[in-house]
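Title: [Solved] Integral membrane protein 3D structure

Original question kept below for reference.
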Amino acid sequence: MGVLRRCLRHEAVLFSSIGLLLRGRKDVPDDGVALPYAGPQRPMIVVFLVVSLVETGAFLLVDFGPVGDTLLLAAEIYTAAWLLGYLAALVTRPHVVSPHELRLRVGALFDLRVPLEDVESLTRRKETHASARGLIWGDEELVMGQSMETNVVAVLRRPVVATRPLGGTETVRVVKFFTEDPALAVQAFSAQRA
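Solution (posted by the thread starter after getting help):
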């Protein structure tokens, strides 16, 4: 899948997440346990969204001519919709533990599905990481942090192939990720393995 197609797919998933949010639904199977992770980012995104709306109002007070006003208004509306879609994707697409798989996501950007039988262990371990990037790739290790922090570690029985957001691939054997309730993650995993 080319980079352009991946970007278009990302936008489609982002904006469809607004519909899920408005209907109060989440992309979680009936037999799955949702593990939310959006909490730390939610206030910052809401602030950006409010600033974007205020900025839109400010631009409407200035006359840039019909073409300039139309372009600025279109850009501002798209920005506000994108931010709302980003927040909606984080909320409606949580991590999931189901009888079949461990699914780890970053909104519409990244989705890693690991068959549950390939997960050797899932443990609570709080770690702070030096980089603020959402995805950090290392030697067969993937860090999916929030605010430079992870609190659950999944060790896999064998390496799996993870697809990067723009299409490249990496081999992953250890995944460190953040969830708002790490105890629930471990409990759900243990219940599925029992």
